[in-house]
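Why this split exists: single-chain examples teach little about how molecules sit against one another. For that reason, every record in the complexes split bundles all components of an assembly together and asks for one structure covering all of them. Below is a record exactly as it appears in the raw files.
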Amino acid sequence: MTRQRVAVTGLGLISPLGASPAAAFDRLMAGVSAIRPYRPDPTFMTSPVPALACDHFDAEATLGRAGAYVADRFAQLGIAAAIAAWDDAGLAVESPPQEQSRGAVCWGTGLGGIGSVESAYFDLLQRGRGRASPLLIVMGMHNAAAAHIAMRLGLAGAATTSSVACASSAIAIGDALRMIRSGQSDIVVAGGSEAPLTAGMLLAWDSMRVLAHGEDEAAASACRPFDAERRGLVLGEGGAALVLEPYERAMARGARIYAELAGYGTSCDHHHLAQPLAAGQVRALRAALDDAELAADELDYVSAHGTGTVEGDPIEIDALRTVFGPRAESVAVSSTKSMHGHLLGATGALEAVITVLALSRQQVPPTAFLDRIDPACSGVRHVAGTGISLPLRAALSSSFAFGGSNAVLAFRRLETVH
Amino acid sequence: MQTLELLRQYLQTKASIDPAKVVPEAKLEDIGIDSLILIDLMFELEESMNVRVPSLDKNPTTVAELIDLFDALQASQVKTGT
């Protein structure tokens, strides 16, 4: 039996990178960062840190005040991204929605409603309130975003949530691929959202000594993956979603197809909670290529995990050199985190959206601020500074998580893309 | 502040419910107060009025029932001096 091909027919993004995925991609191609100095709470943070914040996101405009009020920011960002993707796929956003009996949502988040949880503890312990809001339960739970999305779009088949740190939404997208291939679902909204810019989270990441610093204008260029002067990662918030459906269904309804989601590979380092391992990443990269039935020499671009940490970046490049051998020198590699930072559980979805647009436009966005490649990160074709046009047949998007979980998505260009 | 006014203020601020619709005879579900918002509303009223709602056999279904519940709790508190 021929395996079901899976088409990407809708993209949605809530990010200061741009008002639409296309606008965000244009900005990335120009190498312009959206990272700014950020300080959530002067009580706890003496100075700002670089971060990607969705300052102009208006939750009430999309969800209404009552809808926004019962949802944590991570869910708000997620719902808005999912609705945008659904709309982009040419599907009606109705209220109440039409039930999609075989429709599903596969969502990813690392921290869920951490902002609601953190502020409840602040009320309890700092303000001495003595009681916690009953809404904390439904705002704090990790599956809140998926539940809201299913309600808004009438997705009756399944609503799942993956919480696997920085691989959460890549795994959600991989699960969606399998759901469609198995015949369980005929349309899936897959993606992720994260709202990690709380005082507690920023301080904890800083204590881990992996957060990049930079004040004023220097904040924008604080994240420098693969550069010899890199100093760490930058946290970001946002939501990103893809609409996935069987290729035949997409063609039958005349949908615009951006690209094919062709494969998914996953692995576990089984090694360390916070230290990545090249061998584990190699297994996930090879599994994605195998699943997509792609030979290594058919692959033209890798959207790297590339967080900008001193330890992590060379390990990832080592894994790519192992997988691609001598051909690694001609595989374009970039980490757009240089311009949007690390969205943790949502980062896989954001970078999947970017990879899909790279294939459909035949353009590779750059690693911005990559001025001097660290010799330990050499051996691949780094696209640095600004983006380039390049014939792309297939591309990978990598997400490697604390806990050693690795997830790699493979996308293929479709000749019928329009 | 009267209980009705407290209710109107809360519902307008948190859920954009028009105060003109918050009248005693209105059914809670008809003005957009579902079970989740009701439980948060009762929590907020408990805080504002410094009372505690005991276990209920049946939740209030109209604005009037909700007001009566909280007014009675406040009255019994004044009476017992607690």
